[in-house]
Write a structure and sequence with these properties.
The protein is α/β, with parallel strands linked by helices and 243 residues long. 24% of the residues lie in helices and 25% in strands. The protein has six helices and nine strands. The chain has a nine-stranded mixed β-sheet. β8 and β9 (220-228) form a beta hairpin. Bound molecules: NADP nicotinamide-adenine-dinucleotide phosphate.
């Protein structure tokens, strides 16, 4: 029998260098992609009911997660809200209420965190976002997606990183699609994170991806992968290197 409130469809959108890096070792905002890639990110965001971001990316990049006026208009024409809900994930909850996202009123903001969030932060964020604070020390990502579906009617989530959050979702089988831009650079450096972060650990099992679209614009390549979930795979799921 189908679950009453299945989780939303989750797409993740990233850009990486030819050698697989998503930023430099300082985690400072780096502009290594084209205008086309930025438009691509906006277009992916515009398709979703909610956009999801990890606390470090929010803090480092100080993004508003809003949309250009023409994409807001297109959503309105499709009978959607002007912009997707904005969802922040943080275990510790030490989120600065002065970040740009809290000055932009483009769409409601939800924060999924824990009771570890300091009381004064709860007060400072109270009027700016809806807080979902778990009693446990860590946010339950499956639970968060179920709440997005059941309480906020979210059917599609666009995860915009960063790699720590993406890896957590991936490990739990909670990513359905990956939109990946390959930018024509190489950064090198073991301390610069890849798509799955800096962890030296293998994923619990190899994740199989199926390439469903490939588009070349200038020197950039825009790839769309469907993530194959374990239950969908008949063949061996663990690669020898992961065993
Ligand atoms: N090239 C790209 O496409 C791209 C895209 C996105 C980001 N980035 C870059 O990625 C860098 C940040 O990467 P990152 O991996 O450190 O950041 P991240 O995934 O954005 O954030 C990590 C933080 O998010 C919270 N978090 C992550 N997973 C969680 C989970 N399962 N449950 C609850 N909270 C969770 C925690 O916050 P607390 O510490 O508050 O508990 C954690 O410390 C930035 O430099 C950014 O520019 C690049």
């Amino acid at each position: 029998m189908k679950q009453k409130h299945a989780r939303p469809f989750v797409a993740a959108t990233f850009a990486m260098t030819v050698d697989g890096k998503i930023t430099t070792r300082n985690f400072t905002p780096v502009d290594f992609t084209s205008r086309e890639d930025k438009l691509h990110l906006f277009r992916q965001r515009a398709l979703a009911d909610a956009v999801l971001i990890g606390h470090t990316s929010l803090k480092r990049d100080n993004v508003r997660l809003s949309l250009p006026a023409e994409l807001q208009q297109a959503r309105i024409k499709r009978k959607q809200t002007p912009a997707p809900l904005r969802v922040i994930v943080s275990n510790k909850g030490r989120i600065d209420s002065g970040l740009k996202i809290f000055q932009s009123v483009t769409s409601p903001i939800l924060i999924f965190s824990t009771m570890r969030m300091p009381r004064k932060t709860q007060v400072a964020l109270g009027g700016k976002a809806t807080l979902h604070l778990a009693e446990s020390d860590y946010v339950n990502l499956e639970g968060m997606l179920r709440i997005l579906r059941s309480q906020y009617k979210v059917r599609t989530v666009e995860c915009e990183g960063g790699p720590t959050l993406f890896r957590s979702l991936l490990e739990r089988g909670l990513v359905d699609r990956l939109n990946l831009t390959i930018a024509p650079y190489m950064f090198g450096g073991a301390k610069a994170p890849t798509l799955t972060g800096l962890s030296k650990e293998f994923l619990p099992a190899s994740v199989h991806c199926s390439l469903i679209e490939m588009r070349k614009v200038g020197d950039e390549c825009f790839l769309t992968y469907r993530i194959k979930h374990q239950r969908q795979r008949r063949t061996r799921t663990r690669s020898p290197r992961n065993d």
